[in-house]
Amino acid sequence: MTRRNIESHRIVGIVCLIGLASAPFLLGILTLRQLTAALFLGMFAMSWDYVSGYTGQLSFGHSMFFGIGGYTAAVLNLNVGLSPVVTILAGTVAAGIAGLLVGVPALRLRGPYLALITLIAPLVLVQIVNIYPDMLGGEGGLQGMDLLVAVDEPIGVLSAVGFESAFEHRVVVYYYVALLLFLAIYALFYVFTRSYVGSVFTAIREDEDAVAAVGVDAAKFKLFAFTMSGVVGGLAAATLVHTPLAGAAPERLLVLPVSIEVVLIGFLGGMGTITGPAATGIVFYFVRDTLQASDAVIPLVGLPVGEVWEVLFYSIALLVLFALPRGVLPWLSDLSRTVRDRNDPSAEPISETH
Amino acid sequence: MSTHSTRSARDTAQSADILRLENVTKRFGSVTAIDDLSFTIRDGDIVGFIGPNGAGKSTTFDCVSGALAPTSGSVYYRGEDVTGRPQHALVRRGIARTYQTFRPLNDRTILENVALSQVPNSLFSLTDFRADTEERAREICERVGLEEYLSQTPDELPHAGLLRLEVGRALGTDPDLLLIDEPFAGLTSDEIDQTVKLFCSLREDGMTLVVIDHNMHGLLDLVDRVVVISFGEKIAQGTPEEIHNDPTVQEAYLGGEL
After folding, report:
1. Does residue A290 belong to any structural domain of this protein?
2. Which of B64, B108, B129, B173 should one mutate to test binding to chain A, selecting the residue with the greatest count of A CBs within 10 A?
3. Which parts of the sequence belong to the ABC transporter domain (chain B) (predicted)?
4. Inter-chain contact B109–A351, Cβ cutoff 8 Å?
5. Does A195 reside within a domain?
6. Residue A173 — pLDDT band, cuts 50, 70, 90?
7. CA-CA distance, B81 to B67, in Å (whole number)?
8. Does A200 touch chain B (CB under 8 A)?
9. Residue A156 falls in which region: left (phi positive, over 0), alpha (psi -120 to 50) or beta
10. Do the beta carbons of residue A188 and residue A276 sit within 8 Å?
11. Parallel, antiparallel, or unpaired for β B225-230 and B46-50?
């Protein structure tokens, strides 16, 4: 990658970072609340991309990690009374153990075996939640977990910069909690995928024989990617259930559409980029929410958008996939390169993509 | 590390065996790909491993390199039983191989392809991956004649270049024993000459080479010894001259193009 290319990436990154950091001052309070939830979807998507986007081992059931992380934290908090910091840690560890339990047998084998296993595992978990409604809350899920940070009273600093009610303060505080976690996860994945570990991951995706031929145990690296991905997904979900945004409910953490969503976001954003799925997760959330809440009526057929939003939403996703099979970020990256080359024909050609 | 052990082994026992197969059999269901195959490879030799198509040459490589576990029998490397060990572990011990159907990584440059051979097999390593490994990868590329293609991707490489890439990536693991699967197929006679030169220079560095081919055309000037298999069984072993005059071998090739 040329120096100029790196620089332009850096500028875009810094602008995004400043934008995210100052979002509470730029957006309405309800939009900020949406953005907080969107950040969590971005974290889920990153966790999927780390294993599936990089190693090519497709997981169709990442919700198992979100579910195990979230439910472990919620149950330990509600039933045992452990503090959120401890339960989040426990949820994270539990998701990691699940990663090992599923990954050890599934990743020794090559091919679509992992995809099948991960497709089934969350189905089992959904049923377990329904079998123990007293402890796990059944379909309605668990509510009333302690908040990670109690914001009962207005905070002086926030009042000074113009946020009035305790509700607003709470939204702002949890936005920053989510943003910090989002950035920490992004940084962690970035460091790993840009190191030799990332080059092994993508080599596994390209050809496992080549990896074995250079003396590297592909199964070990696959298991590491899968487990670490699970740990991070579990961490995000365990944190989420200790925010005012969401309880631990199957439809948010566990059901099949949750898993499909992260796969879809990964493909749409650009597999194996981390940045693409992270950003696309945020946009995805807003597009979905906007369609869902829309009271517009589709002309000619006369259907309200809010009622048929799923059809519209997934159709849009399909169209984007057809148009940009490699995902949005690689497309943008190519586009900016083309534009730059056109403006400056002397620029040397770039052979690397990221 | 591995070159050092090679040298000392060569000093003490010139004709020590580096590889020994004892009664190795590999079955796939009811098909017997290798049948009770035994032979030894001496340290420092270049050995031709020949046989007609489907004789079991690549399957033998798979069993030696650890890609497949033999159904029965044993593989000894430097006197140690390594039967059924996984390939990545054997590579670390000094057995490298190339594939007949090349396995380039099409998502990265030639230099990065070769650089993969420099990565540690541990999840957390503080070795500075970028700096000296890239230098080493560059050296290897020069050694195998890929210096002009460093920043190109494998799909831009001619056939002979892909073979060099396979050999380069294997060299990057610092092997003592290099198994090369049918390197001469599809090469021009010029390219064959260059490849033969490269193999000879590797042997001078103390490497042992086993080279697969259909026939002995490309191998005569190169190899010290030849092992011939047919239908999974060894039918002859010896110097190229001995093999050339062997009636069983001639029959296996139907009196044809040995």
Report:
1. no
2. B108
3. 19-256
4. yes
5. yes
6. very high
7. 16
8. yes
9. alpha
10. no
11. parallel
The answer to whether the beta carbons of residues A82 and A209 sit under 8 Å apart is no
Q: Is A197 on the interface with B (CB under 8 A)?
A: yes
Does residue A2 sit at the B interface (CB-CB below 8 Å)? no
Residue A309 resides in a domain? no
Q: How many domains does chain A have?
A: 1
Instruction: Give the residue from B75, B21, B60 showing the smallest Cα distance to B231.
Output: B60
Range of A66's domain?
24-253
- CA–CA separation, A164 and A162 (whole Å): 6
Instruction: For tokens 């979905």, name the residue.
Output: A288
List, for residues A119-167, the tens digit of each pLDDT value.
999 999 999 999 999 899 888 899 999 999 887 777 888 888 888 888 8
Inter-chain touch B107–A205, beta carbons under 8 Å:
yes
B132 or A203: whose pLDDT is higher? Answer: A203
Its CATH architecture, for the domain B2-104+176-252, is: 3-Layer(aba) Sandwich (3.40)
> What pLDDT digit, counting tens, does each position of B190-235 carry?
998 899 999 999 999 999 999 998 877 767 778 999 999 988 899 9
Q: What is the mean pLDDT of chain B?
A: 87
A195 touches chain B (CB under 8 A): yes
A141 is a domain residue: yes
| Segments making up each domain of chain B, as ranges | 2-104+176-252
- Answer whether B146's CB lies under 8 Å from B110's CB: yes
